[in-house]
Each structure stands twice: as structure tokens, then as C-alpha cells.
Amino acid sequence: MIPRPGDVLIVDSRASVQFGGGRELVFRVIALGVKPTYDGWGWITGYVLDRDGNAVERRKIFVQFEGLRRFPR
User: Fold this and answer.
1) What domain of life does the UniProt record list for this protein's source (predicted)?
2) Which residues are CB-neighbours of 65 under 8 A, at least 6 positions away?
3) For residue 34, is it left (φ>0), alpha (ψ between -120 and 50) or beta?
4) Which residues pair with 49 in a beta bridge?
5) Which pTM value belongs to this model?
6) In what order do the strands lie in the sheet containing 8-11?
7) What residues does 1 pair with on adjacent strands?
8) Per-residue pLDDT at 56
9) CB under 8 Å to 40, separation ≥6 — which residues?
10) Which residues touch 49 (CB under 8 Å, ≥6 apart)?
11) Which of 28, 9, 7, 11 is nearest to 19 (CA)?
């Protein structure tokens, strides 16, 4: 899945080992990186969301797109 601005995603170890071991994020995408990277990987910018859906931290993360999952609404 190629994320788009506005998507709310679950980012866990399927997307990158850095988010394994209970460090998964609920992440609202605001922008995609434009520079080429490894095939199937890319930079996304967005906000980490808390349990109430509030943005608590802005981050830029490097992920494997195939491992991203949509957050159930």
C-alpha cells in the first residue's frame, strides 16, 4: 500500500524492525518523501496519535510500504 496524506496507519514491525517489541505507532500521514529509496520503501511524514486520536508528536519515518496497515475506524 502506498500511503496518502490523510491516511491513518498502524506502523509496527511489519513496516520496519524499529517499530517492533511493542513500539508500534498509530500514525496520520501528512506527506510522502519524493526522493527515491529502496524499492518498496520510503519516507513518510506525519503525526503519532494517542488513544483519543490526538496528534502528540510529528515524525518522519522510513518504512516498507507493504507492511503498513490501515487503522480501523
Assistant:
1) Bacteria
2) 1, 2, 3, 15, 40, 41, 42
3) alpha
4) 55
5) 0.90
6) 55-64, 41-49, 25-32, 8-11, 69-70
7) none
8) 98
9) 64, 65, 66
10) 8, 25, 26, 27, 28, 55, 56
11) 11
